[in-house]
C-alpha cells in the first residue's frame, strides 16, 4: 500500500483578495484574522492521492504549515478521505519563504516515516513561486516532476507521467519515492460529503512545532528565509466604461479607433 | 456561558451544503422556473448528497446530525433555490413522525429507505377547509375487521405527487374527537395524487392534492397510536415544519442581501455606485439586521430541538420573524434593482414571488401570532 503525503496550504479566500492587509514591516500577508481556504491546486493534489486510495488502497497523510486556524483545512482534507493530518504550527514558522517552508515540510515528512509519493499543488494562489515542491524534493533527495497533468502508468515504484512543458508536454518516467506537483488538468476534485465529515470525527490532527521537529530556530520562518519580499502592493485593476455617442458611422469609427489604439486590430 | 459560534464540524457541513447548492442545485433552477417541474432531477441530487439522511438516527441508516445541521442545509439550499429547499424541508417533515412516533418495526421498514432517498415521505394534514385547525379535519377513517378505511381529500400538500409514503391525518367517522395518523403509500387502492398546483412562486416545487376513496390501511400503518394523531401532526409541524420554513426564509434573505449588495456596488448613478446613497445603505442595513436576528432566533430554536427540548414556540417566533423579514427583504431587493427588478433575467423577481409562498406554509403569520400570544399569556 502506498504511503502518500499531500502538502496543502491555507491561503486567503479569493473573495477577500482586495481587502487583504499587507504587513508594512515583513511585507507578508498576516493570516490570523482572515478567512482561509485550501489552496485550489492542492485540492487536485489531494484528489490524486484519493484516486490511488480508491483504486488500490493508500494511506494519505495531510501536511500543512500555517497558523492554528489552518487546522480547519486539515480537517476538511480528512473529511474528503485522507487518513491522518499533521499541522505544523509555531509562531517561529511565520514569514517563511519557499525555501524555509520546504525545509520545514521536508523535516516533517522525514519525521512522519516512510513515504512513497509526495503530492503538492504546482503553486499557491498567494505566493505562486512554484518552488516549494522541487525544494522539498531536494531536501529529501528525491526526484521531482513538476506540473503533472496526467499519471499515465503506475507500475509498482515505476511511474510514467505527463507534465506541462511550455506549449506542449513531456512524458517522464520516474522511480518512487518521488515528489510530484500537479496542475488542475490532472483531475476534478470531489466535493465534501456529509458522511465524510462524520468519519473525520475519529481522525486525529497532530500538531508539531519547531521543537517537535528538532529544527534550529535559524532554519525556520523569516530567519531561515534567504529570500525576502521587499515590496508588496495591491494590484489595481480599473475598468473604464465609455459609452459611444453619435450616429452609427461615428460610433463604428470610434470603436475601430479604440481597438486600433489597443493594438487589437 | 452562551456560545453563539458554530462548531468546526458545522462550518464544514455548511461548506459542503453551499458547494452542493451552488454546483448541483443552481443548474436546475432555470428549468424549474420555466417549466414548473424538474423536481425528479432535484430529488436525485438531494439523495446523492445524503441530504435526506441528516436527521435520521445512525442506527436506521441516517447520519444523525440533528436539526441545527438541517437548518444549515436548508439555509444554504434556499439561498440558491427556495423551491428545492421547500421540497427538502417537507420531505424532512414527512420523515419526522417515523423518527419520533414510529414503532421499532416502522423505523426499520421505512427510515433506511428514506435516508437513502430510495423512498420519499410527506405529511398530509391541510384540507380545503384549512390546515391550521386540524380538529376541523374531514378526512375520515372507519375501523373494519382490524383494518382502517380512509376517505377524504387533502390539499396544498408539498410533494403530493412525489412522496411514496404520506402521513395522513384523519378523524374517526364515529368519534369526532379521535384523530389518527396513517401511513398511506403510493399504489394503495383508492389513493391517488390529483390536482397539481401552480403557485405564484417556488416554481418546480411539487404541490398538489391527494384523494382517498375507500383506502384500506393495515393497523401496522397507524403511526403514533390510534387517537394520537393530533399530537403526531402537531409535533412534526410545530418543530420540523416551522423550523424548515425558517431555513427557507433565511436562505431567501441571504439571497436578497447578496443580490442587493452586488447590484448596488455595480450600478452607477450620479457618477457613483448607488451603494453610496444612504437610501440604499439603509435598505441593506435593514436586510442585514433582519437576517442576523432571524438566524439567532432560528438556530437557537434548532439547538433546543437538538437538546431534546420543546421548541415549537421558539420556532413559531422564528418562523414569524424570518418569513416576514424575507418578504420585506425581497421587496427591498426589487426596489434597489429599480427597473431591473421587474425583469425576469434578474433573480430578485423570483425572490419576490418565492417570498409570498413562505408566509402561509406551516402556518400563516397570523396563526404564528396566535401561538405566540398563547405562549406569552400562559
Essential attributes:
heterodimer; A: 265 residues; alpha/beta; Rossmann fold; 9-stranded mixed sheet; two-stranded antiparallel ribbon; 28% helix; 26% strand; B: 378 residues; alpha+beta; Butyryl-Coa Dehydrogenase, subunit A, domain 1; Butyryl-CoA Dehydrogenase, subunit A, domain 2; Butyryl-CoA Dehydrogenase, subunit A, domain 3; 3 domains; 10 strands; globular
Write the layout of secondary structure elements.
The complex is a heterodimer of chains A (265) and B (378).
Chain A: E1 2-8, E2 10-12, E3 36-38, H1 40-56, E4 58-65, H2 71-80, E5 84-88, H3 98-112, E6 117-121, H4 132-140, E7 144-155, E8 158-165, E9 168-175, E10 178-182, H5 194-199, E11 205-208, H6 210-213, H7 248-261
Helix pairs in contact in A: 3-4
Chain B: H1 8-25, H2 29-35, H3 39-48, H4 67-80, H5 82-101, H6 104-116, E1 121-124, E2 140-144, E3 147-158, E4 165-172, E5 175-185, E6 191-196, E7 207-217, E8 222-223, H7 229-266, E9 268-269, E10 272-273, H8 278-306, H9 312-336, H10 348-358, H11 365-377
Parallel strand pairs in B: 1-4, 2-4
Antiparallel strand pairs in B: 2-3, 3-7, 4-5, 5-8, 6-7, 9-10
Helix pairs in contact in B: 1-4, 4-5, 4-7, 5-7, 7-8, 7-9, 7-10, 8-9, 9-10, 9-11
Molecular structure report:
The complex is a heterodimer of chains A (265) and B (378). Chain A has a single domain (2-219), classed as HUPs (Rossmann fold). In chain A, the strands form 2 sheets. Chain A has a 9-stranded mixed sheet with strand order 9-8-7-10-6-1-4-5-11, with helices on both faces. Chain A has a two-stranded antiparallel sheet with strand order 2-3. Chain A is α/β, with parallel strands linked by helices and 265 residues long. In chain A, strand 8 (158-165) and strand 9 form a beta hairpin. Helix content of chain A is 28%, strand content 26%. The model of chain A has no long low-confidence stretch (mean pLDDT 92). With 378 residues, chain B is an alpha+beta fold. Chain B has 3 domains: 8-120, Acyl-CoA dehydrogenase/oxidase, N-terminal domain (Butyryl-Coa Dehydrogenase, subunit A, domain 1, Orthogonal Bundle); 122-226, Butyryl-CoA Dehydrogenase, subunit A, domain 2 (Beta Barrel); 231-377, Up-down Bundle (Butyryl-CoA Dehydrogenase, subunit A, domain 3). Helix content of chain B is 52%, strand content 17%. In chain B, the strands form 2 sheets. In chain B, strands 1, 2, 3, 4, 5, 6, 7 and 8 form an 8-stranded mixed sheet that branches. In chain B, strands 9-10 form a two-stranded antiparallel sheet. In chain B, strand 9 (268-269) and strand 10 (272-273) form a beta hairpin. In chain B, helix 8 runs antiparallel to helix 9. The longest helix of chain B has 38 residues, at 229-266. The radius of gyration of chain B is 21 Å and the shape is globular. Classes of the chains: A alpha/beta (265), B alpha+beta (378). At the A-B interface, helix 2 and helix 5 of A face helix 1 of B.
